[in-house]
Design brief:
4 helices; globular; mainly alpha
Length: 86
């Protein structure tokens, strides 16, 4: 769907009423909470969509996002590169 919209001239960096771009939504950025204390009726955050993020980044000419690695708890096996440098 993203490719189809882009092929037909969709603006890929447009912002919604919550100041989020399609890339933000694909990354799972939630609707911001209201600052004025009003009851928050925001929907749950969207599920991150890595394939959509990669396609949007490619179509927008942005570099690929580096793979995110989870930090390992101490003593959990093989040391990370950071731990080896210590």
């Amino acid at each position: 769907m993203v490719q189809f919209l882009a092929d037909h001239g969709a603006t890929l960096d447009v912002k919604d009423s919550n100041n989020r771009t399609p890339l933000d939504v694909a990354n799972g950025v939630p609707v911001p909470k209201k600052a004025d204390g009003e009851m928050d009726m925001a929907p749950p955050p969207p599920k991150p969509r890595p394939a959509t993020v990669a396609l949007l980044r490619k179509l927008m000419g942005l570099p690929e996002e580096p793979e995110k690695t989870e930090p390992r708890p101490p003593g959990s096996g093989q040391a990370s590169a950071e731990e080896k440098d210590r």
